[in-house]
Recover the amino acids of this structure.
């Protein structure tokens, strides 16, 4: 059993990661983290979304979470963005660099990065 001081230190260290599981904002970023997604590089994508949301001070309006298989393994890593009152956007073949761009242009700027969406891909 840890002491209260040790538990508080762990809590303080991990508070920036809370955006990964909690949030009450209007935007949800969901990263496919099934075996196929992880094998294709989804973990760095997930971590980048969490870091960029925190760095941009967006954690009050954006939640980053993970899910299992999305069902389009050939397009992994897959990220879905849900915004209140808008149609879901599915980003495919994501990388950490693309994730940074999506946060900057889509999440902050309101403009879908269409070249990364499933609508612009072929199997």
């Amino acid at each position: 059993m840890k002491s209260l001081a040790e538990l508080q230190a762990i809590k303080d260290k991990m508070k920036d990661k809370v955006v990964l599981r909690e949030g009450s904002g209007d935007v949800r970023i969901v990263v496919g983290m099934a075996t196929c997604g992880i094998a294709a590089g989804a973990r760095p994508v997930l971590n980048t979304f969490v870091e960029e949301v925190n760095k941009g001070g967006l954690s009050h309006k954006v939640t980053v979470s993970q899910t299992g298989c999305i069902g389009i393994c050939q397009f992994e890593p897959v990220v879905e963005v849900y915004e209140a009152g808008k149609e879901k956007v599915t980003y495919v073949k994501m990388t950490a660099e693309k994730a940074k761009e999506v946060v900057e242009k889509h999440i902050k700027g309101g403009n879908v990065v269409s070249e990364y969406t499933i609508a612009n891909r072929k199997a």
